[in-house]
Amino acid sequence: MSWQAYVDTNLLGTGKISKAAIVGLAGGVWASSPGYTLSADEQKTIVSAFNDPANTQAHGIRLAGQKFFTLSANDRSVYGKKGGDGCVLVKTKQAVLVAEYTAPIQAPEATPVVENLADYLIGVGY
């Protein structure tokens, strides 16, 4: 399966995720939803967010020009909120899954979609 198919089918296709991307830990966007552009600085911040969760917690995370308040951050996952919308970032062995959801979708609906895909990718070596 192509990386784009994971974004289109496993994330956007659930109806719970509105925008998504897969960012390689070594740099570069492997796949993204149409019109969802993460700047080079945003990509670096996304990858480094897991190295210093306390800093991510303190400063939030910026995705496609939108700043999200960080609800929680650890070495695997970052959860953010902006008004009624939110984001879920999950690190795998080689990439970070970046997903945004919009109200009325809530975190308990969107988070398992991203976490489960991350578990699958980790299980197959990615």
The figure for the number of domains is 1
Structural class: alpha+beta
H-E order: HEEHHEEEEEH
Overall geometry comes to: globular
Full CATH superfamily name: Dynein light chain 2a, cytoplasmic
What is the third-level CATH name, the topology?
Answer: Beta-Lactamase
**Gap from first CA to last CA:** 13 Å
Taking pLDDT < 50 over at least 5 consecutive residues as the criterion, the unreliable ranges are none
The order of strands across the largest sheet is 2-1-7-6-5-4-3
**Assembly annotation:** single chain
CATH class: Alpha Beta
Number of DSSP strand runs = 7
Helical proportion, percent range: 25-40%
CATH architecture: 2-Layer Sandwich
The number of helices is 4
Q: What does the main sheet amount to? A: 7 strands, antiparallel
Cα Rg: 13 Å
What features would you describe in this structure?
- It holds the Pfam family Profilin.
- The protein has helices at residues 3-11, 40-48, 53-59, 107-123, and strands at residues 19-24, 29-32, 61-63, 66-73, 77-82, 85-91, 95-101.
- With 126 residues, it is α+β, with helices and mostly antiparallel strands.
- It has a single domain (3-123), classed as Beta-Lactamase.
- The two termini are 13 Å apart.
Compact overview of the structure:
By secondary structure, the protein is α+β, with helices and mostly antiparallel strands. It is 33% helix and 33% strand.
SSE diagram, text form:
Elements: H1 3-11, E1 19-24, E2 29-32, H2 40-48, H3 53-59, E3 61-63, E4 66-73, E5 77-82, E6 85-91, E7 95-101, H4 107-123
Organism: Lentinus tigrinus ALCF2SS1-6
Protein name: Profilin
Subcellular location: Cytoplasm, Cytoskeleton
